[in-house]
Amino acid sequence: MNTNLQDYSHKRLNILTGEWVLVSPHRAKRPWQGQNEAISNDQQPKHDPSCFLCAGNIRVNGEQNSEYEDIFVFTNDFAALQTTSPKFNISEGLFKAESEQGICKVICFSPDHSKSLADMDVEDIDKVVKTWQKEYIDLGSNEMINYVQIFENKGAVMGCSNPHPHGQIWSQSTLPNEVDKKDQHQLIYYSKNHSSLLGDYLKQELEADERIIYQNDNFVVLTPFWAVWPFETMIVPKTKYTNITEISREESLAFADAISKITKAYDLLFECSFPYSSGIHQAPTNNMPNEHWHWHMSFYPPLLRSATVKKFMVGYEMFGSPQRDITAEQAASKLKELI
Q1: Who contacts 260 (Cβ-Cβ below 8 Å, separation ≥6)?
Q2: 79 φ/ψ angles, rounded to the nearest 5 degrees
Q3: 330 close to 31: Cβ distance less than 8 angstroms
Q4: Could you tell me which residues come within 8 angstroms of residue 326 by beta carbon, excluding any fewer than 6 positions away?
Q5: By the number of CB atoms within 10 A of the CB, which of 60, 80, 203, 213 ranks highest?
Q6: Which residues of 226-241 are buried (b: 16+ CB within 10 A; e: fewer)?
Q7: Separation CA 144–CA 173 (nearest Å)
């Protein structure tokens, strides 16, 4: 690696979105006198009678959860998208608005209230993967739905309102901003080179071996060259697939293994239940070929120096562009040591 990248301020390009991130490695030495987050390592009970997501409990809307033993899926009681929204389009000079329809679901990963993905067996994480596959197919087959966004917010610092292990799916009629940018940049590259943008990037990463954290036969866990969040990571399948339904049974287990490895490493990094937002970006469900897509899963953790010091996206990040102090190579090295 060019040592200039480890010592001096510079910009790195996110090839999937076309956006730049400012890297300032010398700032990692500055003293911290800012806010410290409260991180709780209190052991949660296996079942919490007051939890709206635990098996058999009553949710806010009065419905009772099933006595589920592995995965539980239901339509979000407070969905951000509605199927009943009327179709409309407003264009009055510079005032523009369009209707948006969609379906939002909640996926409980386990009936055990005390667990996170990091605490679950690979076989149980594989059940989550299979549920993601099923929901992608079911929601994507709805003619109203053109994109299915699978994600998880873990930890109170990420705004998670319930500690029970769960994720969400928001499916909608149009492509959200981040997906639209990735769709365009992958299409431009594929049209020009007749190969996958992320696939070619992965080959270069494997050859450089500077940001690789873990790999098995089918997947690679790495810190992207353009990472924004301090310990951001990405899971990329070695084979170009447009969406998660195309992976085999063996590859599904390998994907679960990769999720298990990185989430466990996160918990070890600062010896806490590590908060993050994670999400899968994959091909739209718009009945188009989408051959340019190479699906991937990203983890965006907010912790910077310890379990209590958070990376804030403020000031320059709001008015200029994203900025980070620890380099992607330094972050990858620390995580790799923990696997």
Answers
A1: 117, 118, 120, 121, 122, 125
A2: -65, 140
A3: no
A4: 25, 28, 230, 304
A5: 213
A6: bbbbbbbbbbbbbebb
A7: 6
Written as one letter, the residue type at 184 is Q
What backbone phi and psi angles, to 5 degrees, belong to 327? -75, 160
SS3 content of the chain, % helix, strand, coil (to 5): 30, 25, 45
Alpha helices (runs of H) in 109-166, residue ranges in sequence order? 122-140
Q: Which residues are catalytic?
A: 166
Query: Could you read off the pLDDT tens digit of each residue along the chain, which spans 339 residues?
Result: 678 888 889 999 999 999 999 999 877 555 444 555 555 566 789 999 999 999 999 998 999 999 999 999 999 998 999 998 899 999 999 999 999 999 999 999 999 999 999 999 999 999 999 999 999 999 999 999 999 999 999 987 877 778 999 999 999 999 999 999 999 999 999 999 999 999 999 999 999 999 999 999 999 999 999 999 999 999 999 999 999 999 999 999 999 999 999 999 999 999 999 999 999 999 999 999 999 999 999 999 998 878 878 888 889 999 999 999 899 999 999 999 999
Per DSSP, 57 falls in state P
Q: Helix, strand, or coil here: 145?
A: coil
Which domains are seen in the chain, by residue range?
Answer: 43-336 (3.30.428.10)
Assigned token pair, 202: 């992965």
Rounded to whole angstroms, how far apart are CA atoms 293 and 283?
6
Tokens of 280: 């899968």
Q: Is 104 left (phi over 0), alpha (psi -120 to 50) or beta?
A: beta
